[in-house]
Every structure is written in structure tokens, then in C-alpha cells.
UniProtKB/TrEMBL annotation:
Residues 1-24 form the signal peptide. One of its GO terms (molecular function) is metal ion binding. Residues 41-454 form the Sulfatase N-terminal domain. This is Arylsulfatase. InterPro entries: Alkaline_phosphatase_core_sf, Sulfatase, Sulfatase_CS, Sulfatase_N. Gene3D superfamilies: 3.30.1120.10, Alkaline Phosphatase, subunit A. Keywords: Calcium, Hydrolase, Metal-binding, Signal. The keyword Iron does not apply. Belongs to the sulfatase family. The lineage of its organism: Bacteria, Pseudomonadati, Pseudomonadota, Alphaproteobacteria, Acetobacterales. Its EC number is 3.1.6.1.
Length: 769
């Protein structure tokens, strides 16, 4: 029997089948991953902070660096490698392949100025190394000190575009974002998020150990999940920048090793350099400059103190080498060592002479320096979390042997030359020994690109990219005697400047670090060109021992003109003769009223109220639970300077600490009962004409010069008490926290973080004009 309905369904299905086969079905496919070039190596770039050319044993120095030495045995070492004379500028060149002023880093981030060469803002015409490698199929991660984000962006709320994980191209970051930080209480960030240290100093915490652990963990995770994908690791220690902080057992190894003093030490280093062949046989040892004392001019107590400072520094450097060794061992353990290109730069500038004639460590409550006898009483604690110590300037000079100059001196080789080792066993198994081609940080990026078979982009985000400044160094690995391909290089830091051209060097020193006010601070804005231009033929005079300016005036004029040309091309002008205004008065863009609540913490000093002026009001609304309130309501600073409002035994306490001394403490007469309360603390300068000038030392770590103040505390509208504080100061390397005290404790009366058991509903800090 004919079934029309069934016939209709059959026809419809046949028609659908026929039509569906007329349509081309796309083959299933996922978007292809970016694939690196075949054989692309893993890349590890290691950068150590503030080390003189002659500090490590590999280059004739007194400091044991067995892992640096071992790396050189699987690669080559360079004795003519150059850096910029200051940390952030060096890092900018390293991480981009461009000159420092060219990318806005003619100075450190804390001293940014509104000029293209000094604003610390990465230009859109520049694609950083990590971004290029990431686009070429690499995993990218940075660990340690990061000093290339504008200070106004170092804020938990962002913006994040110029953070390591922003335009700089890293997929992961763990470390701090500043010139320096405590090795025991660093202001840590994981990617964009502020985090706390996994241990306390008593439990063995140390920053260099921590970043190494994190880097190794990242490596293991990468090996487990992306074994066949190459990685790029940028590992930059906070060591050996001040503060020189290192566990005591490392210091013990160097006890008595520097009692001969810096003059003899420098001669010893020079002789070892000759014996090792890391400097030419005809190189001369340059003399001690005016302004640095002869060792024999010191009295016995001074010698004892500064010799111990050097013991601490040497220990710090050796511990750093040990941690670098742990990182490289992890790569070996994963079987990745052969095809890993390692570049280790042992110093981002010359050794630091910022410690002044006798170094610095303890301070009196008023910011003055104690007597040498009193400083000796605490000397055994140097290296611990309690002191932000730095060695005497002459140690930095001694270890720059055979050169003139130290950190900040861009006119001499001592400030601009540091050791480099490159190792890549899979590609260059026979590459060994010394290389002497002139080279610079801008050569690193082209080296990495050639190794990875990557061509950097010519256009990024519709913006044409500038051509790279440097030239790859891979040719030096298998051509030991090849002529240098880097022919011209300018240097400029704080008014000190120079130009290199095909073996000739002309430079002028504006000011030595130890010539600055108080002999220890960063160079200040002032008159430059107080010294004369100098001229050297480095082809015959490796250490700049013979000034030829009077003999070849025309050559000097030629190089001066070349410097002017390079300065104009690279945005060096207007020349900045120093670093000033490190702490802009009126932080957070001039904001004067700040409102906080429970949960707000880790506010950097750049974005916090300027309490060092000693003229402000703090008003807090708190809710105390039935079982009573206890802990910190407000804290700003740390153990070397700060103010804190906390509750102890049901009483409000407002306390100030300056350089580790309690300089003011006030307790409320009334107890803080359960329920809601309104607290007001008023601080007024004892002398209304007093200002808060910058600290003469450790501007990025220490506190502003203490200012005396009169403090009043009231509870629920009733004035409880008024008293005088000898000073009000805030430690720059610590943070502002609400409802807790993160980092080191401002007061010894509690143990950080001493979280408040109640709720800080609202806390307003008002700076008084």
C-alpha cells in the first residue's frame, strides 16, 4: 500500500543528503602554535648588581666565584665588555638592544625627568628582547631585581603596561621593582600582585635564595609541561647592591682576608690579573685618585671597621655566585645544559663608591653618623636585616683594578667595564679562553636573535621599529682574533660622559661620587665640566693610564664632535649633571588626602602620604570585636624608620621609630572597648620652619632626615594625651599598610604582621600644607 507520508520523508532525506554533499566541509584544525626555529637554544641571561671588574676570582679578584669560573670553562670570557655606569640604564640597554637614553633610561626610574632621554618610558618604536623571543616561540620569565618600570606605575592597581609582564614581554615575574631593597624584607611582586616572603629572616629567608627557588620551580614546571619549547630566563640579583646583607656563615669565610687594606689589595688583584692573562701584559695600574684616603692614613679602629665591611661584601658576592650555581645546576639536572645559551654579566656597572670614605651602617636617631667606636660595637651584625650597610668607597676603587673610575663614572673604564662569560656547548663546544673585542650591552639582543634564528620586527602595533644599535657577538665564539664589529659607543651618566671610536676614548668627569656633598649620596644637580677632557688610545693603553689630550688636541676635538653627534641622535640632551629630586614632594601626583580601609596594604612610598614632613592628621574609624581589639591599625615604614598606630592591652599606642630607635611614643589614657570608635592622631612640626630634606644616604632604602614633631592623640572626640616626638621619619624601602604591618615591624613591641583583630572601616590621612 502506497504511503505518501513515508515517500515524502524518503525524498526529503535524499534531497538533504544530496545537497549536503554539494557543500565543502572544512577539515578540522586548531590554529598552529608559534614554532621556534629548529635547534633554537634555551637562553639564560644573568646580571649581578654593582660589581667591579676585578672583584671575582675569574678576573683576578679576591672573591671566590667557583660557578662563574666553571661557566667560563664551558665557554669564553670577555675583558673588553662594557656597561652603562648606572643600573637602570644598563638594564634598559640589555633588555632592548638600544642605547639607554634612546629608550628613555638616561637615569634611574626614581629620578625620571620630563625629557625623552630621561622619562623612563619605553618608546613605542622599541620591541624589547623578551617580547621578540616570546613572539618567536619562547617561554619568558624574569626573576629578581627589576628597575625599568616608571616609579609612578609601581602600584598594585597599575597601570601595568610597562611592568615586566606588560610591554617588556615576560610571561612571569617574581621579584622587586626598585633600585634596591632589603634582602630580608623585600617588597615582592608575583607578576602584578604584591606577595609576602615565604619565610621570615629567623627561618632563613634571603631574597637571592628565594628568587633562585622560584626560578628553579618555574624551570621544573616548564620542563614537565613544555619540555620541547625553548625558554628565556632573565635572572637579575639584588646583590651586590646595597644593602650588603648576607647570612653570617658566609661572612666568617672572609674573616681577616682584607686586613692588608685597599692599596695592597688593588696591587694584588693587578698582579693576579697579569698572571691569569685577563689583562694585557703591558697594562698599567692606575693610581688612587684624589679624595680617597690612603689605607695607612686610617687609624686602627677605622681599619678594623672598613676591613669588616669588605668581608661582608665579599661574602655577599660569593653567596650570589652560589645561588647562580644552583640555577645552572637545575638546568643541567634537566638535561638542558648543552643547548642552553648562558650569558653571565658580573656587574651592571662598576663597583659602588656610594658608601663614602668610611662606608655606612648604623645611624643615630637624628640621622647623624655614630663614632667609629660605636659603629664597631654593632659590626658583627652587619649583613643582618638590622642594617642597610655599604662598604667604604675605596674598596670599590680597589676592585676596579687596573682601571680608573667606579659606578656613576661614565668617563672612565672602571665605571663602564664588567666581566662577561658566554657559554653554549651544543653550538660552540670548542669555544674557550679570552675574547677582547670591544663590546657593549646593546650587543646582547642581536646575539640572542642570531642564536634563536629570529629577525626582530620592523613594525609592532602599526609603529615602525628603530634598527638595533648593537651587533651579534656570536662571531667572537669561533673567531677569537676577529676584529671588533662594534666601532662607536657613547656613555653618559650624571654629567660624566665619554665616547669610544675604533680604539680611541675621550671623556670628561663632571664629579666623582665621593666629591658629592657628604661624600656618599648620589651626585647632585650642579655645575658640571669642573674637570678637563681626557684622551686615551686604548689600543696601546688598556687601563687608561696615559692621558694624551695635550698631545693630540685635534683628535680630541674630533671625538668631542662625535660625542655631540651621538648625544643628539640618542636624546642625551639636555645633559643631566646629576640625580636630584629622588623623592618628589607630594607623592601620588600631589595628592594630600588619602583614604584607606581594612585590606589595603603594600602601598609603596611613592604613592603614600609624605609623612616625613611631620605635619599631618590621621583619622580612623574602627570597629572593635567583643573579645577586644589588638594589633596594628596603621603602619608606615619599618625597623629603620616609620610610624605606627596599634592597640596593645586595650590602649591605643602611636609610636615613631628613626634609624632603629624609638623617638616618640604616646598611649591613650582611655581603653579601647568593644564597639565603634573614632581615633584622631595629629602631628605638627615642633618648628614650623623645619623642612624634610632628603637623607644624605640611602635615599631609596633609608628614611628622610628626621623632623621633630608634637603629637596629639584623641579617642571619640576626647583629647587623651599630647607629647613631643624627637623625630618623625619613614623608611623608603618599606610600605604603608592598613590593619597590619607588612615587612619589618616599625615597633619592637609586636611581631609583624600583628594583624588588627577588629576592622578598620575608614582611615584618612591628611597632609597639612
Amino acid at each position: 500500500m502506497f504511503n505518501a507520508r513515508k515517500m515524502g520523508l524518503l525524498l526529503a532525506s535524499t534531497l538533504f543528503f544530496s545537497v549536503s554533499h554539494l557543500r565543502a566541509e572544512p577539515a578540522p584544525a586548531w590554529p598552529e602554535d608559534i614554532r621556534p626555529a629548529k635547534g633554537a637554544p634555551n637562553i639564560v641571561v644573568i646580571l649581578v648588581d654593582d660589581v667591579s671588574f676585578g672583584a671575582t676570582e675569574l678576573f683576578g679578584g679576591p672573591i671566590a666565584t667557583p660557578n662563574f669560573k666553571a661557566l667560563s670553562e664551558h665557554g669564553v670570557k670577555y675583558n673588553n665588555f662594557h656597561v652603562n655606569a648606572l643600573c637602570a640604564p644598563s638594564r634598559a640597554s640589555l633588555l632592548t638592544g638600544y642605547n639607554d637614553h634612546q629608550v628613555g633610561f638616561g637615569t634611574i626610574t626614581e629620578a625620571a625627568a620630563p625629557y625623552p632621554g630621561y622619562n623612563t618610558i619605553l618608546p613605542s618604536a622599541v620591541t624589547p628582547v623578551a617580547a621578540v623571543l616570546k613572539a618567536g616561540g619562547y617561554s619568558t620569565a624574569a626573576f629578581g631585581k627589576w628597575h625599568n618600570t616608571p616609579y609612578w606605575q609601581v602600584d598594585p592597581t597599575g597601570p601595568y603596561d610597562l611592568w615586566p609582564t606588560g610591554r617588556w614581554g615576560f610571561e612571569h615575574f617574581y621579584g622587586f621593582l626598585a633600585a634596591a631593597d632589603s634582602q630580608y624584607y623585600p617588597r615582592l611582586y608575583r607578576d602584578h600582585t604584591p606577595v609576602e616572603t615565604p619565610q621570615t629572616p629567623d627561618q632563613g629567608y634571603h631574597f637571592t635564595i628565594d628568587i633562585t627557588n622560584d626560578a628553579i620551580n618555574w624551570l621544573h614546571t616548564h620542563d614537565a609541561l613544555e619540555h620541547d619549547k625553548p625558554f628565556f630566563i632573565y635572572y637579575a640579583t639584588g646583590a651586590t647592591h646595597e644593602p650588603h646583607q648576607v647570612p653570617h656563615q658566609w661572612v666568617e669565610k672572609y674573616k681577616g682576608r682584607f686586613d692588608q687594606g685597599w692599596d695592597v689589595l688593588r696591587q694584588q688583584v693587578f698582579e693576579r690579573q697579569k698572571a691569569l692573562g685577563v689583562i694585557p701584559a703591558n697594562a698599567k695600574l692606575t693610581p688612587r685618585p684624589a679624595g680617597l684616603p690612603a689605607w695607612d692614613s686610617l687609624d686602627p679602629d677605622q681599619k678594623k671597621l672598613v676591613a669588616h665591611q669588605m668581608e661582608v661584601y665579599a661574602a655577599f658576592a660569593e653567596q650570589t655566585d652560589h645561588e647562580i650555581g644552583r640555577l645552572l645546576a637545575a638546568i643541567r639536572d634537566e638535561g638542558q645544559a648543552d643547548n642552553t645559551l648562558v650569558l653571565e654579566i658580573f656587574g651592571d656597572n662598576g663597583g659602588s663608591a656610594e658608601g663614602g670614605p668610611l662606608g655606612h651602617d648604623a645611624k643615630n636617631a637624628d640621622g647623624t653618623t655614630p663614632s667609629v667606636k660605636d659603629r664597631l660595637k654593632i659590626a658583627d651584625a652587619l649583613g643582618s636585616e638590622h642594617y642597610l650597610n655599604h662598604y667604604a668607597a675605596a674598596w670599590a676603587w680597589a676592585l676596579t683594578a687596573p682601571f680608573q673610575g667606579t659606578k656613576q663614572d661614565a668617563s672612565h673604564l672602571g665605571g663602564t667595564t664588567d666581566p662577561l662569560v658566554i657559554s653554549w656547548p651544543a653550538r660552540f663546544p670548542q669555544a674557550k679562553g679570552l675574547r677582547s673585542q670591544f663590546s657593549h650591552l646593546v650587543d646582547i639582543a642581536p646575539t640572542l636573535y642570531e642564536a634563536a634564528h629570529i629577525t626582530p620586527p620592523t613594525i609592532t602595533d602599526s609603529v615602525a621599529q628603530w634598527p638595533l644599535e648593537g651587533t651579534s657577538l656570536l662571531y667572537t665564539l669561533d673567531q677569537p682574533n676577529a676584529p671588533s664589529r662594534h666601532h662607536i659607543q657613547y656613555f653618559a651618566t650624571n654629567g660624566n660622559r665619554s665616547i669610544y671610536a675604533n680604539g680611541w676614548w675621550a671623556g670628561i668627569l663632571a664629579q666623582q661620587t665621593w666629591e658629592s656633598p657628604n661624600g656618599s649620596a648620589y651626585l647632585t644637580q650642579g655645575q658640571h665640566d669642573t674637570h678637563q677632557w681626557e684622551l686615551y688610545n686604548l689600543n696601546d693603553d688598556y687601563s687608561q693610564a696615559s692621558d694624551l689630550a695635550a698631545h693630540y688636541p685635534e683628535k680630541l676635538k674630533e671625538l668631542q664632535a662625535l660625542f655631540d653627534k651621538e648625544a643628539k641622535r640618542n636624546q642625551v640632551d639636555p645633559l643631566r649633571p646629576g640625580i636630584a629630586g629622588l623623592y618628589p614632594v607630594g607623592a601620588a601626583g600631589g595628592q594630600k588626602v588619602f583614604t584607606y580601609r581594612t585590606g589595603t596594604s603594600r602601598i609603596d612610598q611613592w604613592h603614600a602620604p609624605h609623612l616625613a614632613s611631620g605635619h599631618y592628621t590621621l583619622a580612623a574609624d574602627v570597629d572593635v570585636p567583643a573579645h577586644g581589639g589588638n594589633g596594628v591599625v596603621f603602619a608606615d615604614g619599618g625597623l629603620n624608620g616609620g610610624v605606627v598606630l596599634f592597640v596593645q592591652n586595650h590602649h591605643l599606642v602611636y609610636q615613631a621609630n628613626s634609624n632603629g630607635y624609638t623617638v616618640g611614643k604616646i598611649l591613650s589614657e582611655n581603653v579601647l572597648t568593644p564597639g565603634k570608635h573614632h581615633i584622631v592622631v595629629t602631628v605638627e612640626p615642633a618648628d614650623t620652619g623645619t623642612t624634610a630634606p632628603h637623607s644624605k644616604n640611602l635615599i631609596w632604602l633609608g628614611s628622610h632626615k628626621p623632623v621633630p614633631g608634637n603629637v596629639t592623640i584623641s579617642l571619640d572626640g576626647k583629647v587623651s594625651k599630647k607629647t613631643h616626638f624627637d623625630s618623625v621619619a619613614v623608611q623608603m624601602s618599606e610600605t604603608l599598610d592598613i590593619g597590619q604591618d607588612m615587612g619589618s615591624a616599625v615597633s619592637a613591641d609586636y611581631t609583624a604582621p600583628a594583624t588588627f583583630s577588629g576592622t578598620v572601616e575608614k582611615l584618612v590621612v591628611s597632609e597639612t600644607p
